[in-house]
Specification:
It is globular and about 40 Å long. The longest helix is centred in the middle third of the chain and has 18 residues. With about 110 residues, the protein is of the alpha+beta class. The chain contains 2 helices and 4 strands. The chain has a 4-stranded mixed β-sheet, with helices on one face.
């Protein structure tokens, strides 16, 4: 199932969200699905704070530490964002800033 679009055009102001990591306070889940869900929840909170909607995400950069995490990523993004398919870059990286982090996502959101 495709979870992205090849291109998006917007004439709206943009909200740029820095890379969100799977940590809340001192808690870092071990499970990749929980990590992705936590990251998406953090992104959604920022979107709501800025009075826009998750359906307005136009670009995401996803960093995973293992290609085996593509299935859980697809499931979580499909559940959270439904038919919204932003432009997306996905990169498999050797590591992230904390050794327990398995995912980091940044986003660009149209403010409509």
């Amino acid at each position: 199932m495709t979870i992205y679009s090849n291109s998006i055009i917007t004439d709206s102001p943009l909200l740029i969200i820095s890379g969100q990591t799977p940590q809340k306070d001192d808690y870092i889940p071990e499970d990749i699905t929980e990590q992705i869900e936590l990251v998406v929840e953090k992104i959604n909170a920022i979107i709501l704070e800025n009075h826009t909607l998750s359906k307005n995400i136009v670009k995401m950069n996803v960093y995973l530490t293992n290609a085996d995490f593509l299935g859980p990523l697809s499931n979580v993004l499909s559940n959270f964002y439904g038919d919204n398919k932003p432009a997306m870059t996905l990169v498999i990286v050797a590591g992230l800033i904390h050794p327990k982090f398995k995912v980091e996502i940044d986003s660009i959101v149209a403010i409509k």
